[in-house]
Amino acid sequence: MTETADPDVVVYGATLAGIMAALRLKLRGYTSLVLEPTGHVGGIVAGGLVKSDTPGVPAALAGLTQDRFFAGIGAEYAADGLDDPKAQYLFEPKVAERVAWRLLDEAGATVLLNARIHDAGDVEVRGGRIVAVRTDDGWRRAGFFVDASYEGDLMAAAGVPYAVGREPASQYGEAYAGFQPARAHRIRSFRPNTGFPVGPVPDSAPGDGDAKVQAYNFRGVLTRAADRLPFPKPDGYDPALYRHLGSLLTQRGIPGLSSIVTHTAALPHGKFQTNQALFIGFDLPGVNWDYPDGGWKRRDEIIAEQVRWHQGMLYFLANDPSLPESFRADARTFGLPPDEFTDSPHGAGFPHALYVREARRMVGEHVFTEHDTQRPNNTKPTAVCCWQYGLDCHIVQYYPEGDDTIVGEGSTTGSFVNAPADLYQLPAESLFPARGSVENLAVPVCFSASHVGILSPRMEPTYGMLGEAAGELAAQSLRTGRAVQDYDYASLAAALSERGSVLELPELEAAA
Asked: Using the 8-state DSSP alphabet, how is residue 140 labeled?
């Protein structure tokens, strides 16, 4: 559906952040046009990431993100007779998308699907302000813009500075920055230890920066129900690609797929969530390095390769004769759910959204770094939300070492355990460009952070709360006519708190 009148705000990305921004704007009396580059709303929480990470201090998850989205999911299940508090954080994709659409309707947002921004030719900037963006229906003007996409295409097309990959350790003085071979995850007993997906040995020195990003994957959903769909054999399937996975299964004595996907709590209605699971698993390091700046043609190629890897792995686990028949039989007790992702471009039951864990990162008024996640730099005078989660980086690259070791480099500890972070506050200044740049833009997903700095807050609940702050910043800028950089924090804090946002917690004072 389209409207002839231009909106007050254009929101690029119907992610949880974008939805929360639109909802906040509606409550302030402003209209929004939401441009979603894919065919679905809700972002990755409706696209497969259905085991939501929550903060170490539960009260940090607050605002409309908690009260309307996550609690809204819980209410959906309660209405169906499943009154389980955990269901709001462990849910089915179809329920998340249903709640996402409802909130967009409540926000009165006009939503255009498959509306992609490609480059600077799709964005008009004049006098330090974004004036309009191009859609299939023509140019749409607005007074303010929110880039809530995972890719940051609106931000980049508007000429806002950004970073991709890992800064060198020297840039911000971060212990975990850059190439980290000493903290890499090493697994032995691979013979051979080369071949896909293992890449070449890096020629970087410890602490060097690079343009490499942590691995992406599909967060699949599996079922054991009688009507499950069998794992499809993808075009171009090559069992040799899973040689290292097979070696790892044998080495660890893993008896079946059930040992990989049922170790976390089950979703409602007997469904299960896939993630990386093993050292070599559903993640695919390396193939995604072009994704952030690659443009949509290159991104679609990367998505297709990730689909082949994920679908091929499931097919391998259920059918490859190199695995014990007992393992294959166990794998065949699982399948894809026919009631999820029914119109996915990758086949019924398979997620329609690739989990883009990290892409571009704005270089804004304040760059949030590793230091901001640790005392004494964890408190901020202009906080818009609180959060606590470990520094979570998936493997960035595999490479061989010696004659039997595969190195998985990029994590912060060399294991599946994350480096710790204190309870901290995120400042408003990480949500908009530096002074002298674009004056009417907020960026709640690709917000201003270093690679290490974003590792803790790169979670969907945090993005939702930052989206709320972006919506309130937009509303204030529209009301006052001032650049977003000239916002009034007291007014922003009052507006956020009015709808339940938590800007400070007693634990922060205790830790000071």
From this structure: E
